[in-house]
Amino acid sequence: DAGVIQSPRHEVTEMGQEVTLRCKPISGHDYLFWYRQTMMRGLELLIYFNNNVPIDDSGMPEDRFSAKMPNASFSTLKIQPSEPRDSAVYFCASSLWDLDYTFGSGTRLTVV
Amino acid sequence: QQQVKQSPQSLIVQKGGISIINCAYENTAFDYFPWYQQFPGKGPALLIAIRPDVSEKKEGRFTISFNKSAKQFSLHIMDSQPGDSATYFCAASGSYAGDYKLSFGAGTTVTVRA
Q1: pLDDT tens digits for B66-98?
Q2: Mutate: best of A50, A101, A105, A107, partner B, most B CBs <10 A
Q3: Residues of chain A contacting residue B100, judged by C-beta atoms under 8 Å apart
Q4: Residue B75 contacts by C-beta under 8 Å, 6 or more apart in sequence?
Q5: pLDDT at position A105 over 70
Q6: How many Å apart are CA B25 and CA A28, to the nearest integer?
Q7: Residues of chain A with C-beta less than 8 angstroms from the C-beta of B107
Q8: Taking all residues of chain A, what is their mean pLDDT, rounded to a whole number?
């Protein structure tokens, strides 16, 4: 398996623009997690899905953030409109029930 | 508010030495405690994990020690090597209580000097 695949690896956008981050989990994993990593706040859970259903979105910072998982092999995290404080590395991870997360390589988002 | 407190923030160790990273938690529902290793530009990768039914788990040069009564756990890296230079995160979750999300500590940057 190629592991968890995230795209793009880097994204630079202007404030106010819409940003869409993409994730392909490991085949057969039924949990998918979106985390954000910053120097100030470390690794923060934004939202997680089980069998494509959102279970806990309490970490989503505000209504500008939304996440979807239309099928077992694809998820998106959208920010609209983006702000400079959204600049961070966004990670997607997937796992089975055993919680052994496999993380993707992340998307480094810069909002100018 | 971080549910898992990790220390130190960084440490430097000589090649062959022992690195020790400590974590503490308050939530007694936590029942799964993994450690992740992260290299620059990469995502965190699972290193070793423990459940509270054992007090110690060893895999190669990496050992987790777990103290349930104190609500603390630690990672020991024996015979540290330059390739171990990375950021290490402890984490916790309460999977038996239906909580499948990991709460991460703030991370410890380990530098191994040759």
Answers
A1: 999 999 999 999 999 999 999 999 999 987 767
A2: A101
A3: 31, 48, 50, 55, 95, 97, 99
A4: B19, B20, B21, B23, B35, B47, B48, B62, B63, B64, B88, B90
A5: yes
A6: 31
A7: 42-43
A8: 95
Whose tokens are 């054992």? That residue is: B54
CB contact burial A54-93 (16+ within 10 A = b; e otherwise): ebbeebbeeeebebebeebeebebebeebeeebbbbbbbb
Query: Nearest 5 degrees, angle CA B24-CA B83-CA A10?
Result: 80
Amino acid in position A38? T
Confidence category of residue B1, pLDDT binned at 50, 70, 90: low
Token duo for residue B39: 């290299």
**Amino acid sitting at position B28:** T
Going by pLDDT thresholds of 50, 70 and 90, the confidence category of residue B61 is very high
Q: Do B100 and A100 touch (CB under 8 A)?
A: no
Nearest to B43 among A31, A95, A103 (CB): A103
Average pLDDT over residues B27-32: 91
Specify the amino acid at residue A46: L
Q: Using CA coordinates, name the residue in chain A closest to B94.
A: A99
Give me the mean pLDDT over the A25-47 stretch.
Answer: 95
